[in-house]
Amino acid sequence: MDRRESLRALLLGGFPNDPAPGATLPEREETHALITTNSFRSRWETLPDAASPGEAFRAWPPEDWLVQEGELLCRGGGPDRTVQLLTHRLSEQEGAFILSTQIRFWMGAAAVEAGWRISIAGGGVLDVGVQRGGELFIGTVQSNRIIPGEKLQQPVRLLLKVWPLPQGGCHARLTALDTYGNTLCVLKSTQYGAESWQGSIALLSHSPVAGDRSGKEVSFRYWEAAGERLVAQEHPE
Fold this sequence. Notes:
Blueprint: H1 3-13, H2 25-33, E1 39-41, E2 57-60, E3 65-68, E4 71-74, E5 81-85, E6 88-90, E7 97-105, E8 113-120, E9 125-131, E10 136-138, E11 141-142, H3 149-152, E12 156-164, E13 170-177, E14 183-189, E15 199-206, E16 218-227, E17 230-232
Antiparallel strand pairs: 1-16, 2-5, 3-4, 4-16, 5-15, 6-17, 7-12, 7-16, 8-9, 8-15, 9-10, 10-11, 12-13, 13-14
């Protein structure tokens, strides 16, 4: 499968029911339009064990992140563990974008939430992801439905799609799926405007207390992104 086919599978196969029947034509057109826009995909499966995340990323703290069996592993529990993407960012231009990753909480881990952190260009951060208790969250908005505990013992795929609304603002939809593509939970929000969806993007592992670096906290199998708001930036030296 080449890059274009992989991106098509992400944007169309990844959202089998999004937009749902009855969605407006502009929403359907936006989903297809993303196929031809900027895109990014991690390549951790090509790196040897114990390697750093790669030149496209900045890990903090660096000693807590390494590649293991083709996945990016956070092995030290603690507040605000992040891996920032250096080659792309979310711009201020209008348009939709999509983020996708597969997350796994490991047994005995201290981490209480994992997902993405957007460092907003105007200041502040917006965190999006899943809590260890099974709730999805977009900033301060949490899902009423939770992912069953037995499902969280397995890898969970997270898909975030954000697109502008005709009347202003943005619609964000966060979907959690199991490894077979079955929907586990969905959270929708229009609370955050376009200004909150611009800036640098990072993977996030967060726990209130530090853990033992010899143990596994959270692993990320891959990270994919695409959309009109996703733009390439000069790679820092």
